[in-house]
């Protein structure tokens, strides 16, 4: 039995975070990879990452990845409400730092 294709598979979203950050997230047609591109202050930053994905509710997906820089990102996408709850961690002064944020999605394609 195969897992259902994630609802975000093959789509591109504008992801706007409550801290002002914005990203263009383009998901592979099979839902296993993401190409994120920073916008605004993060313009010019991008990466292709492998995803870990699990459906956690109707039109809700837990998605996680690790970036080459060591940043880890985990978020729950609610495709019905077009919202995201995201937790990311990175190396900061004095050790690992974690941040919890909310954001909105706008489907671009």
UniProtKB/TrEMBL annotation:
Record domain MoaF-like: where: 9-92
InterPro entries in the record: Calycin, MoaF-like
One Pfam family this sequence matches: MoaF_like
Name assigned to this protein: MoaF-like domain-containing protein
Lineage of producing organism: Bacteria, Bacillati, Actinomycetota, Actinomycetes, Kitasatosporales
